[in-house]
Amino acid sequence: MMDSYLIDPRSGFCKSNSTFYSKRKQLPLPANSSLDVTTFISSQPHRGTTAFIDAATGQRISFSDLWKAVDRVADCLYNEIGLRRGDVVLILSPNSISVPIVCLAVMSLGAVVTTANTLNTAGEISKQIGDSNPKLAFTTVQLANKLPESISVVFTDERVETTRGVRVVGILSEMMKKEPSRERVRDRVDQDDTAMLLYSSGTTGASKGVITSHGNLTAHVAKFVSDDSIRGEIFLCTVPMFHSYGLLSFAMTTVACGSKVVILQRFGLNDMMEAIEKYRATILALAPPVVVAMINGADEIKAKYDLSSLRTVRCGGAPLSKEVTEGFLEKYPTVDILQGYALTESNGAGAATESVEESRRYGAVGLLTSGLKARIVDPDTGRVMGVNQMGELWLRGPTIAKGYFRNEEATNETINLEGWLKTGDLCYIDDDGFLFVVDRLKELIKYKGYQVPPAELEALLITHPDILDAAVIPFPDKEAGQCPMAYVARKPESKLSENQVIDFISKQVAPYKKIRKVAFINSIPKTASGKTLRKDLIKLATSKL
């Protein structure tokens, strides 16, 4: 344990080991090593009454009914379907009250939750299923056709009129009505056991399953349990629950704190505004493009909707500029705008601003999360840097994932033997301990908060008979942040057009991965070892802006 007097109280930096320590209040973690995260969440005392409301239908569930449902679903999964510790369960569903019920029930048994993006194609989902090998899938009738017929399915729809060829083993609403059996011996669940397997896109093109333990999730929830400021708040969940942010924040943390969550099935600006007004929402979680849309449409929005209940907007996905932050505060003077930084691999931990004063440190994503340590490492020399020095951000703490599922090579590249997570982000930490994200060392393209791996698109492009070589880069976009742009080297005499390239890819990938812009080039610039020089192409593409 590091002596506190060696740590600079202003920056959190310790010169003796070149490590930054969080300035936030330290949180006690449960000592019981055989505590599953569902039990930890259910044991937290609070005075909340309504847990979730579906914004579209008005359906609501109380905390007492939520825990009854979790218990009954877990009982059915154990006794009727034979789900056991370590088995994987896939959730392929839009945002709904079903997601937290299924998630908490599955994890209570020591089984593992994996989620898939509802926009993904059947081919993309099939790859994930092939990797994670789920025993069971929870989905809707509408999405069932994206699943292979070999997988057992529980439908989350209230009424099921068609089965679309899949093997149906249950209906969630019926499971929730069954009285649990008196005899049930659950497997012992340890903090080190895997609770979630959420897939994070990588620059290699292959999506990787991030192994998240019960201990990781318990540490994440514990961070918020002691925060009295969010108790009694009404959250509006606008982010997808298949993503770590949506799942950890709105299917788990709010339940532990007794907060009410209004769920938007899918995002729409007007739907969001209507829900704020109707349900008197106080806190929103948004990606930067939505914040920009709220600024641009402020006059019309405020004339049409009563947003007087809204007090806080929490923003993640990309750093907010001074212009955006000030523009939002000018248009919505009674609403605080706070931001955060985290990765799927860090399970909600990273940095965040937690007050208006902190949010005025423009360009910063905030102070390090409680319990987290950071290092800034020169990516070329491996030297550990100090205050106000730039390098790759490394993180270590109780929420950092164990590694990647069945991918030892990727695990060793990303998490070292001491447990430091190499984020791939170029950062620095200033004199007051604020983290600034300067650039991405990783090559992922951020489109409206979604991660798009360029190598995946490149692999598809070179299968086209008229394409010799291709490279995909991020192109700046005011609305989306970045969009995928392809540089294509055509075969001689080919008359392949931009629209043909765009159409070729759009038929094979989810909408957010579509290529939006194409330029033709004689050859793709590469290093001597054959790596694509994306930086050169980015310079070429942006030189004409």
Automatic annotation (TrEMBL):
Residues in AMP-binding enzyme C-terminal domain copies: 456-531
Domain AMP-dependent synthetase/ligase: 46-405
GO molecular function: ATP binding; CoA-ligase activity
Pfam families in alphabetical order: AMP-binding, AMP-binding_C
Cofactor (UniProt): Mg(2+)
Signal peptide: none
Keyword vocabulary terms for this entry: ATP-binding, Ligase, Magnesium, Nucleotide-binding
GO cellular component, one term: peroxisome
InterPro entries from the UniProt entry: AMP-bd_C, AMP-bd_C_sf, AMP-binding_CS, AMP-dep_synth/lig_dom, ANL_N_sf
Similarity section: Belongs to the ATP-dependent AMP-binding enzyme family.
Protein's name in the database: Uncharacterized protein
Species assigned in the record: Arabis alpina (Alpine rock-cress)
Upper taxonomic lineage: Eukaryota, Viridiplantae, Streptophyta, Embryophyta, Tracheophyta
